[in-house]
Write a structure and sequence with these properties.
Strand content: 15-25%
CATH superfamily of the largest domain: 2-enoyl-CoA Hydratase, Chain A, domain 1
CATH class of the largest domain: Alpha Beta
CATH topology of the largest domain: 2-enoyl-CoA Hydratase, Chain A, domain 1
Shape: globular
Number of strands: 10
Order of helices and strands: EEHEEHHEEHEEHHEHEHHHH
Bound molecules: coenzyme A
Length: about 260
């Protein structure tokens, strides 16, 4: 059987591709488990410094939950699905390395929520996003009600969630929902280029910066600054910090080892 999530290493970048194109990469239980397996595998893989998540085909990044499967689930199974997808996206958000969503097409419901759990969103300018759940008389259940307002502000998030309306990429860019929009043919190139730039930097520093931003933003500023301070402290005894100083002195590119 075709793998539901493809994993391909390109240097220090791991590209994970949701692979149910005929179902517009909608999440059924099996694809959730496949993605969770890949996330667990990469967490402690020090050869991977950055992750890109994309969808196969040119139609959809991810059409959200598999509504055909959903129709067959009992209430308890729906609860299990929502619990599983919410925890999976949180574990992606908490990965100790940056995750870039390369949004290659429609991202609705859980598709947009997956993108929101990533650190950076790059989209094909033909893509469309939306938290469309209320149209189905449900609500975003994989973090959307929490992450969308934190990214675009509560007023706009409420508008988008209450109306269930979808946004094109010029609007998405304007409201800060995505970091950048590129021509569809340039999407992977652009995501890989950004990932590569991240990979060149000190991996411990990047991990600590992500940690400080994610944890610090959820608290008051003095606690946030204490989190930043602790995160900085962790970089001080590293070999990489000394390598950074040496490379500056010797006018060469640093070679960071994550030590
Ligand atoms: N769950 C299950 N099947 C889905 C699906 C989903 N979320 N999204 C798409 N599919 C299936 C379609 O039913 C269709 O299957 P069929 O050929 O057996 O009819 C196939 O994928 C192709 O979908 P289609 O709508 O023809 O493709 P498209 O490229 O024209 O449009 C989307 C793609 C994503 C814009 C459109 O499929 C869509 O709006 N999907 C529903 C998204 C949604 O509401 N998600 C839930 C949010 S809570």
């Amino acid at each position: 059987m075709e793998e539901l999530v493809l994993a391909q290493k390109q240097g220090q970048v791991l590209v994970l591709t949701l692979n149910r194109p005929e179902m517009r990469n909608a999440f059924n239980f099996e694809m959730l488990r496949a993605l969770a397996g890949q996330v667990d595998k990469v967490r402690f893989d020090s050869d991977v410094r950055c992750i890109i998540i994309t969808g196969s085909g040119d139609k959809a990044f991810c059409a959200g939950a598999d509504l055909k499967e959903r129709a067959t689930l009992s209430e308890v199974q729906v609860r299990e699905f929502i619990f599983t997808i919410r925890n999976l996206f949180t574990s992606i958000e908490n990965l100790p390395k940056p995750v870039i969503a390369a949004i290659n097409g429609a991202a609705f419901g859980g598709g947009t929520e997956l993108a929101l759990a990533c650190d950076i969103r790059i989209a094909a300018d033909s893509a469309v996003m939306g938290l469309t759940e209320t149209r189905l008389a449900i609500i975003p259940g994989a973090g959307g009600t929490q992450r969308l307002p934190r990214i675009i502000g509560r007023g706009l998030a409420k508008e988008l969630i209450f109306t269930g309306r979808t946004v094109k990429m010029d609007e998405a860019l304007n409201i800060g929902l995505i970091n950048r929009a590129v021509e569809p043919e340039k999407l992977m190139e652009s995501a890989l280029e950004m990932a590569q730039q991240i990979c060149e930097n000190g991996p411990i520093a990047v991990t600590q910066a992500k940690y400080a931003i994610n944890q610090g933003l959820e608290t008051d500023i003095s606690t946030g600054l204490a989190i930043e301070s602790n995160a900085y402290w962790l970089t001080i005894p590293t070999q990489d910090r000394l390598e950074g100083l040496a490379s500056f002195r010797e006018k060469r590119k640093p070679q960071y080892k994550g030590k």
